[in-house]
Amino acid sequence: MIVNETNTIKKNNELTFFLNGEKKVIKDPNPELTTLQYIRSIGLTGSKLGCGEGGCGACTVMISHRNDSDGRIVHRAVNSCLYPLCQLDGMALVTIEGLGNVRDGLHPVQERIAEGYGSQCGFCTPGIIMALYAYLRSNPNANQKEIEHNFDGNLCRCTGYRPILDAAKSFAIDKTTDEQDEDGDVKIPTIAKIEDDDTKTDSEPGICPSSGKPCNCKQKTSHIPSKPLELKSEPIFPPFLMDYKKESLVFQGDRVTWHTPTSLNEILTIKKTHSNAKIVVGNTEIGIETKFRNVVYPTIISPVRVPELNSIQKQQDGILVGSSVTLTELKSFLLGEIKSDGASDDQKTKVGTFKAIVSQLKWFAGNQIRNAASIGGNLVTASPISDLNPVLLAAGAILTMVSQDESGTIVERKVPIGSFFLKYRIVDIKPEEILQSVFIPYTRPLEFVQAYKQSRRREDDIAIVSCCFRILFENFENNQFKVRECVLAYGGMNVKAVTCQNTEQFLIGSIWDRNQLDEIYKKLEVDLPLAQGAPGGMIEYRRSLTTSFFFKYFLTVSKQLYEISKNPSYSLSDKELSVTAPYSRPLSKGQQEYQTQPEKHPITQPVIHQSADKQVTGEALYVDDIKIKSLYTCFVQSTKAHAKILSIDASRALKAPGVKAFYSAKDVPGENNCGPVIKDDEVFASDIAIFHGAPIGCIVAETHQQALEASKMVQIEYEELPAIVTIEDAIAKKSFFPFTHVIKDGDIVKGFEESDHIIEGEFKCGAQEHFYLEPNGSLVVPGEGKEMTIYASTQNPTKTQGIVASVLGVPQNQVVCKLKRLGGGFGGKETRSIFSTCVAAVAAYHQREPVRIILDRDTDMATTGTRHPFIAKYKVGVTKDGLIKALDLELYADAGYSYDISVGVLDRAIFHSENAYKIPNVNVVGRLCKTNLPSNTAFRGYGGPQAMIIVENWVEKISKVLNIESHIIRAKNFYKEGELTHYLQAVENNQMQRVWDTILEKSNYLERINKVNDFNEKNRWKKRGIAVIPTKFGMSFTVKTLNQAGALVHCYTDGTVLVTHGGTEMGQGLNTKMIQIAARAFGIPVKDVFISETSTDKVANTTPTAASVSSDLNGMAVLDACQNILKRLEPLKEKNPNMTFKQLCIEAFVQRVNLSSNGFYATPNVGYVFKDGGVGEGTPFNYFNFGAACSEVEIDVLTGDHTVLRSDVILDVGDSLNPTIDIGQVEGAFVQGMGWSCTEEVVTFPTGYLFTRGPSTYKIPGFNDVPLEFNVSLLNDAPNPKAIHSSKGVGEPPLFLGSSVYFAIRQAITAARKETNLNDWFDLPSPATCERIRTSCLDSFIYQFTNNKN
Fold first, then answer.
1. What is the pTM (predicted TM-score) of this model?
2. Residue 121 marked in a binding site
3. Which of 608, 663, 759, 1340 has the fewest Cβ atoms nearer than 10 Å?
4. Is 519 one of the catalytic residues?
5. Is 1071 left (phi over 0), alpha (psi -120 to 50) or beta?
6. Of 329, 682, 1241, 1292, which residue is the catalytic one?
7. Checking DSSP bridges between strand 14-19 and strand 92-94, what pairing results, if any?
8. Is 1038 one of the annotated binding-site residues?
9. How is the cofactor bound (predicted)?
10. CA 1170, 1176, 1178, 1181: dihedral to nearest 10 degrees?
11. In this structure, is the dihedral angle defined by the CA atoms of residues 571, 572, 574 and 577, taken in order, positive or negative?
12. Chain-centroid distance, C-alpha 448
C-alpha cells in the first residue's frame, strides 16, 4: 500500500512550447488537434500529410525536451500527423522552416540533399531532412551505417533512395574528408564518374554535377563533401524551458478533455473518475482510431509527467520499466546494458532477453514511431501481431497494475504476462487501473532467448508471424543438456499472443536432440492451429514459419551448446551455419557513370533540379499548401462492390458541426457521365454503385475532419448485385469490355511446324499502387460569372479543364487549370485525379466559395485504381538450339469497372509482347476484363512492363526445357539492326547488343554465376540467384493525337526569360530540362530562365505529361518558340554583334520587336491503327530505348526473406539532356520496378474491399531495400537523331529492369528446390512476395502444412 498524497494540485489550461525558437502560449488548445494540423493551420506548410498513420514520414518534425531525471536535452523525430498538440507543453518543436530557407540560406542538411539530387518531387523531402537532422542532433558522432539505418520511418517513391543516403552519410564521423582547397574549404566532389568528350584534357576542370560549376572532380563516386555537421552553431534548447515548471494540465475541448497529471496519485484519481479514459503517450494507436475509425474518446490522459511511469530501474533479478517509457528509450537502455556485458561472465548471461528485445525493436515500426510509442501502450493494445509481446511473454515479464481504492490509497496488483492477454485486444486491466510498470527478468546461465519476425517488408512493417523462444537448460551426463524450463511464444497465430503448452511440456525434461525435431513440429502444429479463411490469410505460409523459426532456434542454440560442451551431437554442418547468423545489413554503396559534352552545355550538363532549394526548405508549394481560405469536401462512398442504390439519407450528416451541404448525382449542373476517352464513368454513382468505395455523394464542411466524419453519417440503402472482383473470375464468366485488339505477323502455323519444342504456360503479374507521396488533391476557386480556377495535382491539366467544364455545363474558356508541381504522379494522376477535382468543382459551383478536396491516403488508394494486373496464356515455338520461331499469346488485362485509358495500356502490352526479341511468327490477342474494382489506369510503363515480364518468364521456361542458360537464349534472339517488329516497325539505331555486352562486362556476370553456384553448394538454407534482363521500350504515345506539345516564351528587358510549356513537373526534372533548352537557345545562363507554373490559359490544348516523351515534345516546342524569337532578333544582332542578350532585348523593345512567342511541335510519322485482320497500319513509336540490368539476390529459404546484394543497370538515353537527373530517374524507376515485381502486393477481399490501403498494409521498397551495391550507367556515344538535342526519354524504360531482382529470386528458389530433388519448372506469379518465395522452396516445413507432396 502507498499512502495518498494530500497536496492540492494546480491545474493549468495554457499550453506553452517553443516553435522554431519562438515561444507559443495557447490557452485551452483543442485536445483533438495533432501537431501537424496545428502547424499547417498557422501557415507552416513544409511538413506534409502523406498518410496520416505515421507510415511515410512526410510529416516528420523534431521535438526536444529536458529529461527530468538527468537533465539531458533529448531530441526526437516524431510523426506530427499523430503526435498530439497538447503533448508539446514544455517542449521545443522544430519544423523544416526552422532550419533554413531560400532567402537567408540553406542549412547544411538541406544543402547536401539538394546538391546531391536527393529530392525529385520534393513532397517527402522535408520529412526526410527532419528525420536526418533530429538524428544528427541526438547522435553527433554517428557513423555511416548508423545514419543509413535511421531512415526506416521515411518513404520516398521517386529517388530510389541512393542519393539521399549518400548525402546523409556525408555527415558521418567515419567518412574520409576530401582534400581541401587553398582556402580550407572542402571541395565538392562529383556525384558520378564523368566521361567527358575525348578532346578535353585531364588538366582542364570538369563540371561538378553537384554544383554545376567547374571543379577537379574525382573519377570515383564520392558524392557530397564529407564534413560533419557543426552542431555548435545549431539552435540551443530554449533557456526558458530549462527551468520550466511542469505543472498539471487540463485542456477542455468541445468533445475531448485532456489531462496531464504530474503524480501517480493524480493520474489514478482521474482514472477512477473517468474509467473509460484513454492513456496516450505517442498517440500511435489512438491517433489511428480517431482518424480512420472516427472514434472519439471523451477523456485523454497523458502520463509523461508521472515519474513512476517514466523510469527504468535496475533490480537484483531484472529491470523495472515504467509503462510510459518510449521504445527508443528502452532500446537505448538495453543497448547500454548489453554493451557493458563484458564486465563479467555473470553480466553476459543476464542480457539474453535484452538482446531479443533489441532485435525486435530494430524492426518495430519506424524510428519516429519508436520515438513516441511506449512499452505500456504496446502491451495494452494487445495486438495479436505485436513484435514485442511474444518476447515479453517468453521472458516471463510481470506487469504491475495500480489503482485507488475508496479511501484513495494506491493498490498494486501483479499480473504475470501469461494471463494478461485475455482475448482479441482485451487484457486483464480493470477499468480503474493503469499499467504502472513491466518487470523483465534477467536471463540465467544456460538460458537461451531468441526472437524472430517475418513481415512483407523487413523495416517498418507489421509482423506476419513473430515469436520468441526461451529455454533454460541444465547439465546432464556426457555433456548433454536437459530442458529445465521452456516457453515458446508466438504472435500472428491467434487472436492474441500465445504459448505452445503441448510442445513446451514435451520439451521440459527432455534431452536437447535433433532426433526430436519431427515430433516437436507435430506438437507445434497442434498448438498453433490456423483454419482456412482465418484473418490474415497466408495459412500455409504462416504455419510453416512456426516450425521454420523453431528450426532456426534449434540450430542457433545447438551451436552455442557445442561451443560450451564440444559435444559433437550439437555441432552443425557447414551448410547449416548461415542459419544461425542474425540478419545484418552492410553499408550500401554504388557508382554512377555518364557522359557530359561541354561544347553542348548547358545541354548534357548535370544541372541541379530547378526547385531543389525550395523543396528542401519546405517552401515548394503543393495543392494543399496554397493559402486560400476554403471549404473542404469528402466523398460519401459505397460500402458495396456492386449494388443498386435504393435510398440516400444525409439528414444526420447535415446536422453535424461545420457541415454546409451534401451533394449527389442530382446536383451535378452539367453532365454526370464523364471519362477521359469514353463517358462510361460517373462523378457520383446515380443508380448503381459499381465498386467498393465508389463516390455516391460528397459532404462539404468547414474543415476536412468535419467533412470526413459527416461523410460516415450518410445512410445508404442498397440492393446487392453479383460482383466480380478478380481477373480470374472475369475470364471464367467472360466479363469483357466489347473490345479486342489483334496483331498477326508471319505464319504462326508454319512457325510451330519449324519448332523442335512447343512450350505452353500461363503467367500472372499483379497490380501495383502508385503510392505517390502527395495524395490526389484539388482546390477549385469560383470567379466572376461562370469562371472557375482549378489548382490540381494532375498530370493532365487540359483534360481536367475539359471534363470539369462538361460536368459544370460551362465552356472550357471559363475554366483554367493550373499547378506548380505534383508530389509524384507515375501515371496515377493522368486521368483518375480528374474525378476528385470534379467533386470539388460541383461543391464550389453550389457554394460559390473555394472548395478543397484532399483525398486521405486510404480513400485515394481505394478509389483511384492501380497498374493493370495481367494474365497471359502463351504458346512458344523454339528450336533445339534456342531460336524462337513462333509466339501465340493471349493477354487479359483487368481494366476495373470502366474503360478509362485501358485500351492504350493493353495496346502497349501488345506492342511489347516480344520485348527485345525478333520472333518471325506472332499472333497476339488482347482483351480487357471488366470487374467491380476501381478503374485501373496508367502507371509508369503503361502495359509494357507487364508484357515484358511475361516474355522473360517464358524465356526462362525455354531455358529450363532446353537446358541452355537463359542469357544465351536472350542474346541469340535479339533484334538486329533494321529488322521489323511484329507490328512492322524497323528497329533502327539498335543499341541492344552493345548494351548487353556492356552489362555483362560491367556486372562481371559470367564469373559471378560460378560464385553464386559455389555459394549455393555450401549453404542449405540461404540461396543466391543472379539474373540479367534486357529491355526494348518504344517511345511515343501510341495514340497519334497525343504526340504534340505547345510552349510560350517571354523575354524581358533585363535579359531574363520566362518559359511556360504544356508539361507538368512531378519530380522528373522536366522544368529543369526545359530551362536548359531555353538557356542554350538564347546563350544565357540557366539562372536567367524561369518556369513558374503550368496553366491552361498560357498553353492550351496540352497532352498529358506521360509516356516518357514530355521532354521530347515540350522541349521541341520550347525550342521552336525560342527560335521564333531569335529569328526576329537576327537583324538587330547583325547590326549590333557585340550586344549581350540583355542589351539585345532592350534594343528589341525599343525597336518594337515582339519578345514573346508560342511554340509548337508534333512528332512526325507516328501513329498506329489496329485492323481486325491483325495487320495494322502505321508506326507506333518514334524510337526505342534499350537497357539491361543484372541483379544478384540472397533468399532465406526458411522465411522467404530476400536481400538484393547487387544491381547493375545500364540504359541508352541518347545524349542525356541532364545526366544526373536521368540517373535519378533510372534509380527511382528501377526500385519502383523492384517493388512491383517483388514486394508490392495489392490485396482485395472477396467483398471488393481493398485491404492494402495505406503504408501499414501496402509495402513499397524502403531505404534499406535498395541493392547493397547499386551501379547505374548511361550508355555513352549513342546520340538519338529523332529527339531534342539527340536525347531520349527516360522515365519509363528502366522500371521493367527492376524485375531482374524477381528473376534472380527465381534462380535462388530453383537452387533451393534442387536440395529436395525438385528440378521441374515451377510457376512464380509476380510479385515474388516472401510468402511466394517460401512456399515455392518446397521442403518438409512446407509439406507439413500442404497437400502438395511433389
1. 0.95
2. yes
3. 1340
4. no
5. alpha
6. 1292
7. parallel
8. yes
9. Binds 2 [2Fe-2S] clusters. Binds 1 Mo-molybdopterin (Mo-MPT) cofactor per subunit.
10. 70
11. negative
12. 37
